[in-house]
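Task: sequence design from structure.
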């Protein structure tokens, strides 16, 4: 049986610890949390909203071998952290809709747990994605809202195909 990818979260202590999805994943033993970028696993895939390359199923082997990293910090802080040359391979998640109560229905405003679950789902770790989100009362909502998108992204070959899917998605939404 294949092993789930190792999940690491860079946590910048910028949120309410009681509501932080990253810390809840740590408490449940589902992810490792680090507070210094030097402790991030080298060569892991880093979910980076500023990356030019879209996350895709082609990243599966790398996350199996080296792990998956999410950044749990404000957008302003994220840019500073990422400019410090975070070790790893940066990838930007494709367009998804938030299912969490704070940003419900907003495109790309995902919690750390949603971002990790989306990456797992896209790379074929669908059961692991469901398990990750099952600890949140709203977790199923994220998967339901994004089911078609996640399935399409998971069927893509690579980053280029993901970008093309997003272009057609944004064209069809703006035409509506």
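Answer:
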């Amino acid at each position: 049986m294949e092993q789930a990818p190792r999940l690491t979260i860079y946590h910048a202590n910028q949120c309410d610890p009681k509501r932080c999805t990253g810390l809840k994943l740590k408490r449940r033993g589902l992810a490792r949390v680090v507070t210094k970028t030097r402790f991030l696993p080298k060569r892991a895939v880093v979910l980076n909203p500023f990356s030019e390359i879209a996350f895709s199923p082609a990243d599966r082997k790398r996350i199996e071998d080296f792990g998956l990293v999410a950044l749990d910090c404000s957008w302003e802080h994220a840019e500073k952290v990422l400019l410090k040359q975070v070790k790893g391979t940066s990838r930007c998640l494709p367009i998804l809709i938030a299912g969490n109560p704070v940003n419900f229905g907003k495109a790309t405003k995902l919690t750390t747990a949603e971002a990790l679950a989306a990456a797992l789902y896209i790379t074929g770790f669908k059961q692991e994605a469901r398990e990750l989100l099952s600890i949140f009362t709203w977790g199923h909502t994220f998967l339901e809202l994004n089911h078609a998108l996640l399935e399409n992204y998971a069927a893509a070959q690579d980053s280029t195909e993901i970008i093309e899917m997003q272009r057609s998605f944004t064209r069809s939404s703006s035409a509506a």
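Residues 159-175 form the longest helix (17 residues).
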